[in-house]
Automatic annotation (TrEMBL):
Organism: Dreissena polymorpha (Zebra mussel)
Main location (coarse class): Golgi
Family from the record: Belongs to the VPS52 family.
Annotated GO biological process: endocytic recycling; Golgi to vacuole transport; lysosomal transport; protein transport; retrograde transport, endosome to Golgi
Domain Vps52 C-terminal residue range list: 269-311
Cellular component, GO annotation: cytosol; GARP complex
Protein's UniProt keywords contain Transport: yes
Cellular compartment(s): Golgi apparatus, trans-Golgi network
Signal peptide segment: none
Record-given protein name: Vacuolar protein sorting-associated protein 52 homolog
Origin: domain of life: Eukaryota
Molecular function GO terms recorded: syntaxin binding
Amino acid sequence: MASELTYGHQRREEEDVGLNLGDLDITSDDFLLEEVDVHIQENLEDEIVKEALKTGVDLRQYSRQIESELLQVENASIQDYIKESENIASLHTQIAACDTILERMEQMLNGFQSDLSSISTEIQSLQEQSVAMNVKLKNRQSIRGELSQFVDEMVIPESMIKHILDTPVTEREFLEQLHELNHKINFVKEQSFRDAKSSLDVRDILEKLKMKAIAKIREFLLQKINSFKKPMANYQIPQNTMLKFRFFNEFLLANERHVAKEVRDEYVDTMSKIYYSYFKGYQSRLMKLQFEELATKEDLMAVDETTKKDILSVCLNRRSTIIK
């Protein structure tokens, strides 16, 4: 500040003498008059200088006035700076505190950015795991249906065992379970050909149920066939009953053919005897319907003596044909 005041005082002394050397360095070898003319021309083009020249103001006096005003403003600004020194110091402290807080925030943001980077990596890893789990889920769902069906086909429920063992063969539940038993027997056979280990677990149970069902069916069919032999029995009724249970014969043919042959032979033998007795009685009744007195050769010309035997021969031929 002292140097600036000294410089201002020197400027005023130079102006009093009438010399205004400015910032010229007369010892410089590079001084050019052309540059001085350029500076003078630029100063003359200034609006304030032009206004001062027009009004005829003394430039020296005007310069001293301006310099005095600048000095006053400078002193006032110094006083203001001194008055606000405490506020400036407080502001400096606050700025330093703000710098510290901002530095902390920068560190926190850097840590947050690092955490976000690690979280992004974890999210990507979780996404890959989710895709892999989704693929596994689809694979399990695709095989769950087939595996569930396989287990249902292989398992023997308690209801099947109960109905096959205890329910009469004429009941609807027995027929339904017999269909299911036949299906499971065929399924287990098929799986045994494929070397499925699970077929060994149910094979014995299915075999026992099959033998029990065959025994009950055989007894039922033989009883129905024997009912044909009762005197004056309407054999069409038990025949219709057996027709409703025709699946019994299919089951026997599929699982025990010699029992099916036994039942068939018994049925054929019984029905052949029944038809034979029916036709025999029919023949005897036809013979009774013949006239006791027939025309002889003495009554008619060209009478065949074998006429009496025609009806009998026809009946016998029909019976042999039906039996065959």
